[in-house]
Amino acid sequence: MTAVIPAATVPRRAWKNTSLGRFFRNPRSVAGAGLLLLFVLLALLAPVLTPYNPNSLQFDAFMGFSAQHPLGTTALGQDIFSQFVYGARLTLLVGSAAGLIATFLSVTFGLAAAYFGGRVDEAINTLINVFLVLPGLPLIIVAAAFIRGGGVWPVILVIGLTGWAFGARVLRSQALALRERDFIAAATVAGEGPIRIIFVEMLPNMAGLIAANFFGAALYAVLSEAGLSFIGVGDVSLVTWGTMLYWAQAKGALLQGAWWWVALPGLSIALLGTSFALLNFAVDEISNPKLGGGRLKMPRRTVSAAGPAPVAGDALLAINDLNVGYVTPTGTVRAVRDVTLEVQPGELLGLAGESGCGKSTLAFAATRLLDPPGAVLGGSVRLAEHDLLALSPEELRQVRWKEFSIVFQASMSVLNPVLKIREQVYDAMQAHGVTDKAKLDARARELFDLVGIQTSYLDAYPHQLSGGMKQRVVIAIALALEPKLIVMDEPTTALDVVVQRQILQEINDVRRRLGISIIFITHDLSLLVEMSDRVAIMYAGEVVEQAPAHQLYAHPAHPYTQQLMNSFPPMTGPRTRRSGIPGKPPPLSAEIVGCPFFERCTKRMPGVCDVKPLQTFPVAEHQTAACFLYDPTVSPALKGNAIRESQINAGQSNAGQISAGQISAGQISAGEVSREPARNAKLN
Amino acid sequence: MSQPVTPSSTEVQSPPSSAPNTLEIVNLRKVFGTRGKAGGVVAVNDVSFAIARGEVLGLVGESGSGKSTIARLIAHLYTPTAGEIRLGGQPVPNRLGGAALRKFRKHVQMIFQDPYASLNPLHPVRYTLSRPLKIHGLARGNTDAQVGSLLERVGLSPAATYIAKRPFELSGGQRQRVGIARALAASPELILADEPTSALDVSIRLDVMNLMLDLKDQEGLSMLFITHDLAGARYMSDRVAVLYAGTLVEIGPAVEVIDRPQHPYTQLLKSAAPKPDAGLVPEEIEARGEVPDLKTLPPGCPFEPRCPHAMPECKDGLPKMYDVGGGHTARCILHDPAIRARKQGLVGV
Question: In 3D, which of B326, B299, B324, B323 has the Cα closest to residue B313?
Fold first, then answer.
């Protein structure tokens, strides 16, 4: 059977989220494009704006402002305003044409080097390096001096041919990164040839960078042209803003008081340069949204007047009604919804859920590590006597490492590559006042023994350690000040199965010996059931079930937990078809009415589950589930119907769903059909 | 290093069948980063196996064991350093180009691990799926109908909902289904699936695996299913091959290999995997060290430095594959009759 995939509910991307939409909302791009448009209009409308030929020498020298000559005349008797508007034409032509030539060369060389690799890459790279090492302006001056007086195109060619190297270097490295992407390998396997791979698969993905590169090159060209003309190596018979500067300088404009003859082209060059630079930044920002600036207004946490609720019993960590969201321009994504959780001293709490269910966000928020756009919207977190969410940064610094510490999935990359392991192990201890060298050394050795690394590695650098050893070092650092709680977010996911098992064994030994509590977060439920004391299952930002591990394993209560447990192929027993959970979690940007699992649930009760506000109900001792099957106010007949229907469906599809609310995992096979006979028949 | 191209009969493990195998690889070897000089990384070390028509071979190993490299060698994304690949009994030249390469690609397709990386973010589903049809001359006029039926075959229905979508509009599971549809488009005989489910959420993994099993059953496809998850390999595969440090250490019927592993490394892998169904007490494993650096492999059995059964003979060259019965072989001298006799009663492998 194939899964029923519900018709996609993804809304079409709103216009304002397209690249073009973002372009028009980005202040830099709007300012840059506006300026550029102004200059382009000026250049295009030159014959309309002025009746004079910019080269005609028919007027008196150094005339002042007048109606006829709004900006007066030059020392040679030319109209300055008409020089300015006609000069815009050539200046823009130089900028765009040289920019295009340089960009074309950058793209060609960069892509060729990256795609063909080997000797082609080496040759092109050498060429790039030569051009990068040659000082740009002197090279242009020398080249331009040889072809003086040949009109505007030699200038354009010289600038274009000397200005491509930096862009080629940038494009080459991006193309190299793209070439390693799987979709390029996929296109190759599909049978695409090199031309199509370069131009249809790779090039469009580099459009943003190429556009940014063009504006950068155009900026360089405009400035180079101005510089060349100003020192007189360009063709000074042309009218550009650069040659205007040259003549103004040569004829002593400032001495004659005609400052605007210098100021107008100078300022315009600066403004045109600014517009190209703004466009360059904007395109870069749009094609790479991570660079996006723009502060969003962060909501404040709502705290009930009574302060954090007192915790029943003697829980070490108490999370109460915690709400966490990510503030985005299109609204708030509520990633953690009304989560209440407790961790007892010495307990290992497993937190399981699929990607995007909010388990990491919960851990980040509870340990005050959440960065904007994430924000705690409400609720409280209490660790021993500390109200964690209310601590000042200084108080937090004192509590962190000493009272609790954190180990992340990517924490191996947290180790500083240029510092010896020893210094990094000392770091947290020194920050908390341990300064005696002998004590530090003794403690570091003790920690390494604890997590199973030879103490000789204290004087190694991180790159000399394998991934598993680095993760052990990070765990040793987390243990350094004997915190009461360690939060571990997928600490072994990036490691191999065998190393993962070794580290888990060590974690388990250490926490039993030291009596520390651990929150262990992973998507691997089968692993969690083995090692946790208690397990909490998260779905769509809610904790949907909590139970002691053996209880959760033997009698999963929530239909999601039941289906999740059935989603792991077994390692033993007959091989049978099982089914996953069709569908996908609801988007967390929307308000969810009723149960978030309703759409995918096989035991749903329409009229109840999709209507009533979600509540958590006790199921057994120490076991709770956010499921209306355990709501005492819902009629037993309705529940019975839902369970019966799911059994019938399971029977019809041979899908092997767990068929009742409370059955043990050993009974699952009732609804399953072996596929062995079919396979055997096929072999013969 | 010169390699005999002709296989010795003990090295090629064929399933019991007389028809030509869809795929045979013989002493396949890949050395990275040498440019003809000595001292490179031996990523794949003389690996031989065969896949029969309609069979799924599970290839199991940890990261760096060379399993993805093998898939990419077979797919002609990498060029083998030595060895031979045969398709339908016919040797495939190690250097292929132009029309011959295109023809080869029609027969061998690949499914990638990360569906977020394997679809070009700019191309709609229609483009991605129509290209293989056009490249291999299978397109009939407007390809929308053909693309639509491909989408229906991988469970993306109604197809009209998906055909114009770009990857960012699809969920991970839907993207992987598009990836599978792309592999099916050219009607290949062999699909190389490189960890196709490990980037997916647990709840949708099984559905994607079931889809691949259904397609295999319906279309008689042969499949190389690469995974690091023994349970997944057991669920998907007819036979399982276990790879360690670029070397094939064990191969046999899936249930045999995983229920009764005969190589100490496979035994270690099995004991390290979480098995909540086997009881709640995790098995304590006994293993030293980690996967060795491929640049400095020991001369003998690559697993010897970590093996609980290691003995002096293990360092005397790479052990051969020992037949342990039922088409099941393991590369461990514990199965050597002489050593068995000597260690009788000591090792219960």
Answer: B299
Interface check A289 vs B, CB under 8 A: no
Residue A70 DSSP class: T
pTM: 0.79
As a whole number of angstroms, the distance between CA A69 and CA A73 comes to 7
Domain extent listing, chain B: 23-122+166-342
What is the value of ipTM here, to two decimals?
0.83
Cα distance between residue A15 and residue A13, in whole Å? 6
- Other beta carbons within 10 angstroms of residue A127's beta carbon come to 15
Instruction: Count CB pairs under 8 A between chains A and B.
Output: 211
pLDDT at residue A655, rounded to an integer: 40
Per-residue pLDDT reduced to its tens digit, B252-300: 999 999 999 999 999 988 888 876 655 545 556 666 666 666 777 778 8
Q: Quick one: DSSP state of residue A73?
A: B
Q: What residues 332-361 of chain A have any CB closer than 8 A to a CB of chain B?
A: 354-355
**How many C-beta atoms surround the C-beta of residue A194 within 10 A?**
10
Question: B162 vs chain A: nearest CA distance in angstroms?
Answer: 8
- Give contacts of A 489-508 with B, CB under 8 A: 496-502, 504-505
Residues of B whose CB is below 8 A from A578: 206, 235
- Domain B23-122+166-342 belongs to what topology? Rossmann fold (3.40.50)
User: In angstroms, rounded to a whole number, what is the distance separating the alpha carbons of residues A393 and A397?
Assistant: 6
- Tell me, yes or no, if A300 comes closer than 8 A to chain B by beta carbon: no
CB contact under 8 A, A187 and B131: yes
Spatial contact of A102 and A217, defined as CB atoms under 8 Å apart:
yes
Domain A317-532 has CATH 3.20.20.140: no
A2 and B291: CB-CB below 8 Å? no
Please compute the mean of the pLDDT values over residues B175-197 and round it to a whole number.
92
User: A90-291 in CATH: which number?
Assistant: 1.10.3720.10
Instruction: Look up residue A308 and give its DSSP letter.
Output: S
pLDDT band at B11 (very low <50, low <70, confident <90, very high): very low
Q: Which residues make Cβ contacts (< 8 Å) with residue B110, sequence separation at least 6?
A: A185, A186, A189, B71, B75, B183, B191, B192, B193, B194
